Amino acid sequence: MTELPFRPFPDDAAILRVGQGLLDHSLPRAEWTHEAHLAATTWLVRDRPDIAIDAEIATIIRSYNVAVGGVNDDTQGYHDTITRAYLSGVQAHVAARPSGESLVACVNALLGSPAGRRDWPLHFYSRDRLFSVAARRGFIPPDLASLPGPC
Q: What top-level branch of life does the organism fall under (predicted)?
């Protein structure tokens, strides 16, 4: 049996736990994985219209990082350009999914797609540009190709 390149979520409840844990800072830091980032963002985009995701995502993640003992500086913690690149991918993914689809099916489809890969932003950004301090501090536009959704 071939191992998946990502850890799929077993059900909607597991995704809700991650999303709520991000918002209320109860998610253990060790569980804030790449998959958790994408699952929580998908839940926020899809199921939380009360949250203005484009305006609030930076504050949500920065405050979570600090609450669990992390630091947001020039070398670690919140990275605005990576976050906003993935947010554009999540928004495009959610918009293309069938209405009525379960949250877990939507999230696992994203994780299994090119937009769910850890290197996905490098399709749009050169490595030096993406991993620059300027890109961490604030959104900078891509230099290789346009992102699929709003930024």
A: Bacteria
